[in-house]
């Protein structure tokens, strides 16, 4: 027979000054909420490291077909000195100049590149 484990209580640590002042529930909730929002904002502001064009196009190929078609664009992007973090801002005309003529290709490249902005 399996033994039943007792439920462990959840303990929310509070700094000593907060405990000492006897703050009310509303003040505690506001303090806790502000703390969570601050942590959330810090995570949102943290950027992913920007991959090389080679790694970027390999990533896109592996996620969207693995045929090498995206990697074939690398040289055109290098020739125009375009970096990965610039891709999401390219216009349709600029994509066409680079040989990215299919709308689906553009949408995918912009979608993945936005991860690095």
TrEMBL record:
Against Pfam families, the record matches this protein to: SAM_1
Q: Which residues form the SAM domain?
A: 74-109
Question: Which branch of life, at top level?
Answer: Eukaryota
Task: Spell out the protein name for this chain.
Answer: 16183_t:CDS:1
Q: Tell me which species this is from.
A: Racocetra fulgida
Taxon lineage: Eukaryota, Fungi, Fungi incertae sedis, Mucoromycota, Glomeromycotina
């Amino acid at each position: 027979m399996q033994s039943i484990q007792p439920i462990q209580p959840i303990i929310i640590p509070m700094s000593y000054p907060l405990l000492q002042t006897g703050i009310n529930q509303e003040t505690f909730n506001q303090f806790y909420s502000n703390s969570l929002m601050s942590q959330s904002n810090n995570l949102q502001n943290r950027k992913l490291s920007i991959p090389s064009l080679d790694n970027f196009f390999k990533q896109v190929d592996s996620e969207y077909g693995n045929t090498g078609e995206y990697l074939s664009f690398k040289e055109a992007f290098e020739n125009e000195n375009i970096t990965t973090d610039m891709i999401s801002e390219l216009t349709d005309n600029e994509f066409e100049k680079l040989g990215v003529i299919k709308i689906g290709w553009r949408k995918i490249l912009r979608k993945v590149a936005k991860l690095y902005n």
